[in-house]
Amino acid sequence: MRLTTKGRYAVTAMLDLALHKNQGPVSLADISQRQAISLSYLEQLFSKLRKSSLVSSVRGPGGGYELERQSQSIYIAEIIDAVNESVDTTKCKGSGDCQGGEICLTHYLWEDLSEQIHTFLEGISLADLVAKSEVKRIAENQDRKQLLMTDMQEIQDQEFRVPASSL
Q1: Low pLDDT (below 50) residues in the chain
Q2: 12-31 burial by CB neighbour count: b if 16+ within 10 A, else e?
């Protein structure tokens, strides 16, 4: 199966957004830190997700991104499609030139499998994933780690801060 980083990261970021939706708009910097995805890459993905009406942006202090619809009505296949990704199990990327410029014997088998995978992902919503205990556990660990990193950064900032009176 060929699902590239773009599709995986888009699903991961959208799941992170769904998990943190009760905290208000979620910044891409927070998603970047929790999921170890570069901020610039997230910006590119969220531009496409916004154009597909899966997320909306909130400007200003405390701004970030929110899901455009309820998580139970956003399906994994939609996310993958929004970032121009496909689920493809064919060797030729669906072009039909698998074997010396012609269709191979198993081309239609792999093409059917690709369609089955897409159909499977059309039946899984963000809410389905949020409800999984494993996903909740992993998200809680990521949140703890992020909080710890933020606390450590604040301590470092205080240690290196020079009081204005000493200048």
Answers
A1: none
A2: bbbbbbbbbbeeebbbbebb
